[in-house]
User: Which sequence fits this backbone?
């Protein structure tokens, strides 16, 4: 698929929105420029392991060479990760210089973080309002207030995926009725986002935004010809439970 569309189930539930050419090239360039702020954290996230820990396995990343604009790596970012459960990458970003560079990057990334939120406000207003409510309640926790204040998104978590292939998977930790929103950036060709159960391969060209039920649909992304960064925006159910926010229902097409 190359043109915008949305996909609904037989019951009328909208489970995917495909929005190519959404993010302007200036914003894409800014994403790459600002990733230099967290390059050490990205590099440190890559582990010398088997595919059992595939999200950060070195086998799936491009070789880290001087020609790359963005360091290979995969890190999770959230203003309330402590309440969600941790992995190695998120723990490394909670202290010292790593925390300082992360705060600086989040502040610099307000524009690309806001675009998926704007998309969500249109396609799923209930989830958007729920996300804002969650952020307001997180802000009341004094220890989180500085980080929440610089967080320009209705989503409460984000993963930075730089120069990595993504194996087929579903994203746990959310709700069936919630959208994950992916934004893809870079200078590359032959980008694909595949949904094997649907028999769909999307033209995942730079500047594309895709919103879909990540808890339901298996998806994967092979390496393109060139350099690619994905910012994956999503919500964690246990963080909403932490601040007592109800679960959003399906949006209405």
Assistant:
């Amino acid at each position: 698929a190359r043109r915008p569309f949305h996909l609904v189930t037989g019951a009328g539930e909208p489970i995917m929105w495909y929005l190519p050419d959404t993010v302007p090239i200036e914003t894409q360039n800014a994403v790459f420029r600002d990733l230099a702020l967290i390059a050490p954290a990205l590099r440190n996230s890559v582990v010398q392991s088997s595919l059992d820990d595939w999200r950060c396995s070195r086998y799936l990343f491009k070789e880290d060479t001087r020609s790359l604009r963005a360091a290979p790596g995969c890190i999770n970012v959230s203003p309330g990760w402590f309440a969600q459960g941790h992995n190695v990458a998120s723990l490394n970003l909670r202290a010292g210089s790593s925390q300082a560079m992360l705060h600086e990057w989040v502040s610099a990334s307000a524009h690309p973080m806001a675009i998926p939120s704007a998309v969500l406000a249109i396609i799923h207003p209930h989830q958007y309002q729920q996300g804002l409510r969650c952020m307001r309640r997180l802000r009341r926790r004094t220890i989180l207030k500085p980080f929440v204040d610089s967080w320009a998104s209705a989503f409460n978590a984000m993963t930075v995926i730089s120069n990595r292939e993504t194996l087929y998977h579903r994203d746990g930790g959310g709700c069936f009725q919630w959208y994950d929103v992916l934004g893809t950036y870079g200078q590359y060709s032959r980008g694909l986002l595949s949904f094997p159960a649907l028999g769909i391969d999307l033209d995942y060209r730079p500047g594309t935004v895709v919103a879909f039920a990540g808890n339901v649909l298996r998806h994967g992304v092979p390496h393109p010809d060139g350099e690619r960064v994905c910012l994956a925006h999503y919500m964690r159910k246990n963080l909403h439970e932490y601040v007592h926010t109800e679960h959003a229902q399906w949006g209405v097409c």
